[in-house]
Specification:
Oligomer: homotrimer
Structural class of chain A: alpha/beta
Number of helices of chain A: 7
Largest interface: A-B, 59 and 58 residues
Distance between the termini of chain A: 42 Å
Strand order of the largest sheet of chain A: 9-10-13-16-19-21-25-26-23-24
Number of strands of chain A: 26
Amino acid sequence: MTDTLHSFGLGIATLNREGALIETWYPAPMLHPDPGVTRAAGKACGYSGGNRAIVLEPVQLEALEKAISDSGDEHSRQLVHALQSAARPIVATFLATDEAPASVAEVYLKLHLLSHRLCQPHTLNLRGAFGVLHNIAWTSEGPIDLPELPQRQLQARLAGRALSVDAVDKFPKMSDYVIPPGIRIADTARGGRGAHGGEGTTVMHEGFINFNAGTLGPAMIEGRISAGVVIGEGSDLGGGCSTMGTLSGGGKEVISVGRDCLIGANAGIGIALGDRCVVEAGLYITAGTKLQLMDRDNQPVRTVKARELSGHSDLLFRRNSTTGGVECRANSTQIELNEELHRHN
Amino acid sequence: MTDTLHSFGLGIATLNREGALIETWYPAPMLHPDPGVTRAAGKACGYSGGNRAIVLEPVQLEALEKAISDSGDEHSRQLVHALQSAARPIVATFLATDEAPASVAEVYLKLHLLSHRLCQPHTLNLRGAFGVLHNIAWTSEGPIDLPELPQRQLQARLAGRALSVDAVDKFPKMSDYVIPPGIRIADTARGGRGAHGGEGTTVMHEGFINFNAGTLGPAMIEGRISAGVVIGEGSDLGGGCSTMGTLSGGGKEVISVGRDCLIGANAGIGIALGDRCVVEAGLYITAGTKLQLMDRDNQPVRTVKARELSGHSDLLFRRNSTTGGVECRANSTQIELNEELHRHN
Amino acid sequence: MTDTLHSFGLGIATLNREGALIETWYPAPMLHPDPGVTRAAGKACGYSGGNRAIVLEPVQLEALEKAISDSGDEHSRQLVHALQSAARPIVATFLATDEAPASVAEVYLKLHLLSHRLCQPHTLNLRGAFGVLHNIAWTSEGPIDLPELPQRQLQARLAGRALSVDAVDKFPKMSDYVIPPGIRIADTARGGRGAHGGEGTTVMHEGFINFNAGTLGPAMIEGRISAGVVIGEGSDLGGGCSTMGTLSGGGKEVISVGRDCLIGANAGIGIALGDRCVVEAGLYITAGTKLQLMDRDNQPVRTVKARELSGHSDLLFRRNSTTGGVECRANSTQIELNEELHRHN
């Protein structure tokens, strides 16, 4: 039963005043965990199958340490040992299968799997996650369930403390939970929400990665990666550029960007790009944009709607600055990420 | 005299080293307050009419609690009771009339009235507020008057503390003061400054609401609401879109957006929109933009300047991707906000 | 030897677990310091020439106070006296010459010189600075060397503290180090990184100043100043506008903007602007954009590539909203910064 778990995590949880779990940090989440460990953990925690998040009693934590110690996983044993001194509740989350999450602890475990790069965007079932999560005030004193905020603000002010409310959102800022190796995020307020930052990715101040979205490898992100959008290795999103999501007028199709693409500053795409494509700075290509296809000699061939080129490679999109028409031709320039920046990432 | 106050608030204030009030938090500001309460409060605080902010002595607070207790407002009595334990000065701000604010405490009371949704943008006299306010370093240790910052930085560093300076601005981040119900703000650094967030509004990471501006109901804000701009219910501002303010090259006319509009990503408007208008992603309509009006059969009718259409409803603006000309026709598409997102707001 | 130092600073440093210096705050950096002070300091610190950062022992700090006291610089003496009570190591950084920085302490001294407005962008040798700096987690508990972050996160969570990771970056947020007089920065997460903010500059929420870049005087910055870009007095960068940097598809030429220019919201430039130029909202001018030059009577003269006009003054760039072609003509409008805002800066 615990031999083939989908995932497992031990976390430090935040409960609200009613005792409901509103947030969890898993220092070492596991995908397809070692059966020896989860068997031991399941027994100590009273796990009997299915997808369950169990808040542990001190005695269970002690039993868990002993059981994991016997399983030989010293790293996990040390973690369990440390967790026994926690000032907050400890939760053990067992996911037998990758089903739509039914609890906050489950959603958080999956967000951790994404941000730890154990899973790629779109490979986990997060259906309904938005409805499961609480709307939280993320403050300088930690996450606070929204109904409790006014009282906490009063307490802080009375004591002369500044309580900063940094976000009011269902999704957490994942960079407070895990920073995977080989990444830079200039402003983590914009990098979070279950994002997947590939090794070698730099997210600049204007860059943004939304939920269940991200990069697969080295990339320079100065534009916005909308929910669900995935960016291939070696691609470069210029400052303020837009990848059309499904929230604001975008369609239902989630778009993507291949390898070694360049989307210029303040440009935007409403279609998927293949590999080695370039969109000129300031040009927004929507699915309905009519494009004049140009041949190698820069002569017009025919007109197509941009959606017909969705996902194609080696294309360059620009607006003819004389005629104002949007054109597409073969991309012959080779994009290279700034060498110095990426060498030292 | 205190029977018809415009507004009233009890706040916890921050004074600078010279004893000047630089900031105030009002947990429960009142518009057109109950005369019973303000009569009692006025007597206890020595208020004798006009617009006054009075820093209270402990004995006045005690008298205030007793007086309010007699008036039967138990909620206010509890607040006054709690305030007696404050580590900071308590201020009672009485506004007899809505005049241009003469003190920091007055400006803050009006900012609170806006953010508590007790008043809509433009309904309060805030003339000259900018000149009344101090330029403040908003830090992890609370607001610090700018001339005092270097000394505070030195003290913090000597003690091994990290003093984060989050903003240097006259206007506060209002989300540290009040989060009205039914709102999400993904990055409060951008949602503040006397903003009015309507119930059901989501301000995404790229969204921004400036001073005396905001939304009147459910809305998805991924673009920038400039100072004074008001957005109607059901409208959707795409990522990075711009509503032209009066700071950077915009005119003197404050623009607005009606209900059920969609401004596409990276688009922008320099005119007001009526209801059910759409501006295509990436298109900036300034007041001087010449538009080709198209009929239902998509045939050109005549050319108009955009300012002639300011405030009109049911229009769709786009740039013809073949000719490069900007066109306007009747909007027949119905915009709907993302259902799942807004159901769980 | 110490008579002609390029610069000097006494700082409070952060070391990582291995004892390497990863960050330094210099409360009062000096350019071309008084020889009397540096001679005294050099002797007390055991400085023997070249560019050196010396971590001081308590006994050296005492000697330094005495030596500086003898030199008559009371302000520096007071600083040294205060530093003796620091909970962190104190570093004395002597730069004999402006060479490529070889240590973290050197880079930080130069970043301070820029942000204190002692040097203008591009006047300091910062070659290789990126490679010298550590990739740091900038947290609510101060800078943490990235390899140490997981352990620190665990400690904080065990103790019930929220450890916020605000950035993961090599460059610091300079507003935590110095706020020069006469500046407003609405969101310091975007104003930092060795930026030079001129007196009278306002950086709004959407504004951003990258490394070794900035403004030279009064300016309203609601757009992005890319690395190395310098903006002249009286210029106005509209919301979300872009100045093309060298990271994302930009060329190798660093661009600049002269005095009294206006770049409209969501516009962008890939060429330098001279003085009194205007770029219409939403228009992106790249170096390769073909422009129709118009005479005073608005008649076409000839076609040029934008790069030929790089750095020229008194030009107005716009896209003809009827033909879609990009045009350039003499700018006859006078741009004025919002008076009220700047009077009270």
